[in-house]
Fold this protein.
Amino acid sequence: MTRTRTPALTGARIDRADHVRGDADRLAAALGDRRARLLLLDALDPVVEDGLLGWTSLGLIDDGAEPLFLGLLDDIPHFAPLPADVSRIDGRSRSAWAALTLLAADEAALYASARSLVAWHASYRFCANCGSGTVIAKGGWQRDCDGCGAQHFPRTDPVVIMLARHGDANGVERVLVGHGVGFPSGRMSALAGFVEPGESIEEAVRRELFEEAGVVAETVEYIASQPWPFASSLMIGCLAEVADPTLTLDTKEVDAAIWVTREEVAAALAGEEGARFLAPPPIAIARTLLETWLG
Ligand SMILES: [Zn+2]
């Protein structure tokens, strides 16, 4: 296996500073720091200025908005705003995609973290245990219930995303890419699905490949992971060896799938005219998997 490429949306430079989150005095000092910065957001979208995230002074936070502590960057406290009115917050909206392509990798990673955190607060204002209201704790990395005292933590949903690979009798290896229902025309990507309770990563990869494509994975190899902020998933990228390449597609999820050679993947990644498929965008870990397999 060749060296794994680094997925997009990773590599934030910020120190999450758990020692500040959990210490009321240190958190108060961070909130009172005149240098403290507040992320500019338009609903959940970033405000990008010259390829960098836009920030303002924490003192300029909107009335009723609550600051969520992102951490320390160059020793300066950084926050994201949770607006008083969360009706415009849609964690699944993909309107930020274009802005993400304008940001440097570490800036995009910091934004992705802030976005998932704000979206979580917006949708977890009530206790899942008793239905009472919840309030921010630990600088924004916890919510506590007023009624039953339950503590709630920002959630991340694990998703497996995998390239099945198959070597034929002549030693030619191909990988499987599919067109998900709702993808742009021609776009083909790795297959993916949520990990279910009680499953290991390997078991989820095997189940999803069988459900969506009807292929049986012999071995599963972990490659890399990526936080995905729409709304808050952890994409777990794998390669899976398949002995029998015969496909039986679940067309409700994947309406087309093809086995592609190294040459075909290289042409797609290069965006060549006449390439057999349209490659996933650079932000997607599916592209990282294709690049890693290609070597
Ligand atoms: Zn409760």
About this structure: The chain has a mean pLDDT of 95.
